[in-house]
Amino acid sequence: MAKWAAALRGVLPTFSGGGASSDGKSRPHAGGTADQESSAAEAPKDEIPHTYAPVVWLLGKVQSGKTSVIRAITESSDAAIGDGFRPCTRTSRLYEFPAGAPVIRFLDTRGLGEADYDPADDLAFNEGSAHLILATMRAMDVDQTAVFEALRQVRARHPDWPVVIAQTSLHDAYTPGEGHILPYPFEAQAPAEMIARIPIDLMRSLAHQRSYFDKLPGRGPLLFVPVDLTKPEDGLAPHDYGLDALTEALAIVAPAGMLAALTAMPGFKADPKARSADPIVMGHAMAAGGSDLVPIPVAGTVAATTIQARMLAQLGRLYGVEWDRRAYAELTAAIGAGTLARVAAGVGIRQLAKMLPVYGQTAGAAASAAASFAVTYALGKAAVFYLHGRRLGTMDRGGIAQAYQNALRDAFRIARERRGATENREARQ
After folding, report:
1. How far is CA 232 from the centre of its chain?
2. Which of 25, 88, 200, 420 could form a disulfide with 94 if both were Cys (CB 3.0 to 4.6 A apart)?
């Protein structure tokens, strides 16, 4: 998100005395995306079953979008969420998903900003669980003093705890009849013309919130994600605007135990770009397999490697990761010693076309259509695993190698099935 963050920083000098130049008023949304403040069931604290399910601690003012976040991640209805909340501390309530045998729990701090909130009880409740703080604030609400003070106390005691801030209800800044900017413009690879379409008052308010919370103590990660999570009947499509970016941010900072629980949620995508990557990988793999049908094997090999180069270039653009010498070296080294690949002196399709990744027993059959299909498919799947990790700031060499080997087996199975189907069709003719 560096590019658009730089654009936001560019508007900061327009502030006077630290306040946004917009009116700062939070306009209500008739569609009902604000938090549902239903009363919690009157159940004593000791009736809540003991569980080791990790806790996502939700902090935010009333109607800042906490229930909307839970609804989007769990795909539960507002009614189910409202009925499922149970008191657990003097100022907070707990929602367990799924009820009875929870995988994850959401701790919702009530009345933040409307009462003198002391997070001591919630800290005591949370300290034995996996920790992640998800703060919500309406994008056009510049008065976030209560949220900042609560987070300041938490981070003063636990400086390493990660914090993700969802800047919600972006539509508060839209003019009547205006819809979301598509594609989502708050990503590192977003083109400048998309960023320029963000309403200036929204840009200023988002920037003001970021600048204000940059003063939080602690060294734990602090990520900001603009979102607009509405209901389908509200007529603001897509209704889960920014959800992929939010779940990816949570995946970046979540501890291992927390991440395992989050990825089990119906609305959670640890790698939201994987679905877009699949057709890129399969299309280029099929093209590489067909390229080996040319009469001269050497020409077919060159075509296959060029196709692989183009595939990696497209995947890099999708994930917003630049393929440099280090990236090539990390990917090929992680795939394993059986990979015949050399890092080109330069960067780009022409240099990358010199690389012919072949794993283990496929070396002797590299000129065959099946092998070229399989190797390209496996390379693409390994690249997706690598690029996702690189985007999250992690490097799992074992996982990359396993992804390559698993994909290689899958690809040869697909090739055998395709060949069998072709033979059966020809036999019937």
Report:
1. 21
2. 88
Q: Is 100 left (phi over 0), alpha (psi -120 to 50) or beta?
A: left
Tell me the backbone φ, ψ of residue 125, rounded to 5 degrees.
-70, -35
Q: How far apart are CA 254 and CA 260, in angstroms?
A: 9
The amino acid that residue 261 corresponds to is A
- Residue-wise pLDDT for 142-160, tens only, equals 999 999 999 999 999 899 9
The pTM (predicted TM-score) of the whole model is 0.64
- Residue 27 · residue 172 · CB < 8 Å: yes
Q: Whole-angstrom Cα distance, residue 117 to residue 59?
A: 11
Contact 264, 54 (CB under 8 A): no
Q: What is the pLDDT of residues 1-42, one digit of tens each?
A: 555 556 555 554 433 333 333 333 333 333 333 343 333 334
Among residues 386, 428, 385, 379, the alpha carbon closest in space to that of 408 is found at: 379
Find out whether the peptide bond into 98 is cis, omega within 30 degrees of 0: yes
Cα three-residue angle 268-111-51, rounded to 5 degrees: 50
CA distance 203 to 220: 25
Is the CB of residue 246 less than 8 Å from the CB of residue 69?
A: yes
CA dihedral 142→144→145→149, nearest 10 degrees, is: -150
Contact (Cβ atoms closer than 8 angstroms) between residue 152 and residue 216:
yes
- The C-alpha atoms of residue 209 and residue 15 are separated, in whole angstroms, by 12
Closest CA relative to residue 369, chosen from 423, 424, 304: 304
Mean pLDDT of the chain: 77
Residues 50-70: tens digit of each pLDDT:
456 889 999 999 999 999 999
CA pair distance 30, 2, nearest whole angstrom: 34
Q: What angle do CA 395, 222, 171 make, to 5 degrees?
A: 115
Domain ranges of the chain: 2-262, 274-428
CATH superfamily assigned to domain 2-262:
P-loop containing nucleotide triphosphate hydrolases (3.40.50.300)
Give the C-alpha separation, 305 to 18, whole Å.
54
The rounded distance, in Å, linking the Cα atoms of 55 and 53 is 7
pLDDT confidence of residue 326: 85
The tens digit of pLDDT for each residue in 217-265 reads 998 889 999 999 999 999 899 999 999 889 888 887 887 778 778 888 8
Tokens of 121: 């009880």
Query: In 3D, which of 185, 201, 205 has the Cα closest to residue 193?
Result: 185
Determine the Cα–Cα distance for residues 429 and 425; give it in Å rounded to an integer: 7
